[in-house]
User: Fold this.
Amino acid sequence: MFAPRFTISHRITAGLTLIERARGFLEAARLSDAWLERMSQAALLAEAYATTHMEGTELTRLQAEALWAGGSAAGAREDDVRELLNYRDAFNLVAEHVAAGTRLSEELICAVHARLVTGVRGESGQPGAYRTVQNYIARMATLEVVYMPPPPHDVPGLMRELVAWLETGSEVHPVLAAGIAQFQLVHIHPFVDGNGRTSRLLSTLCLYRAGYDFKRLFTLSEYYDRDRSSFYRALQQVRELDLDLTSWLEFFVEGLATQLAEVRTKGERVIRRDVIAQEHGLSQRQALAVEHLLAAPELRIEDLEALCPEVNRRTLQRDLEDLVARRVLKMSGAARAVRYRLGIKGL
Assistant:
């Protein structure tokens, strides 16, 4: 039977403490449904972009945003477009599973994999089917083999053991269980391609099932994509330490804690925005301008246009002029060089 080996280090304990505090804040904070919806959709896009970017897609963030909104991206490779949108399909499957409360199963993991790779590079490896060939991980620059997964005939048994362990309701903290699931699926490498994307979505699934969805505002892959060398080194170190998962779990927990700290900062910012909006009777568009300025030193009319794409420039200029007149904002510059800053005392 699968029996993960690790030690609860100080780094893990400290990270879990920060995660629980962030979870408590999100549960207690009065955050508007509109803001939660907007930010959760932004997090979903960020996760889709980062997890596919880690696997070699070459989309820009602007192209990804356009595609996510149902538009097109000139010059984008067809495989890259499909991989990005496939992630949304796979995530929706995970969300349906969580909402229905059905048990985790090998069939579900295979179905998630199928949605991720159908119609793209991984399709040649039979979407949703365990591999029947030996695969390996090699450095792209030198083609040096850095990891040889278990032989294909071991895969079904190893996957059964992993799923059984996740379903036993063990006493392992849910965050650690999610990290273990992510590593173990990559370690087994059950599919010809798409194992990384599947493993990261599996860890998200494990967190959601355990009640650690954090309002669906976090994105782990964004943290990994910022420093891929550290991510891959953390995975490889487990193999070098005879499958002791401690160092990987330290990395996983710190990554989640870091992302949730960013979410908490955004949450605190929107609470301040709502207080200002209520005190000054701001419109939704004006509140968005204030929210931007709580995170950035200045605002341009182009920034507000990006936040309110369906509103014409003259209307937005009137919104800003009104805020200046009421001393919520200060204006500097002229013509195209106009910049706005917060004018409220204490901010």
User: Anything to note?
Assistant: The chain has a mean pLDDT of 93. The chain has two domains: 10-266, 281-342.
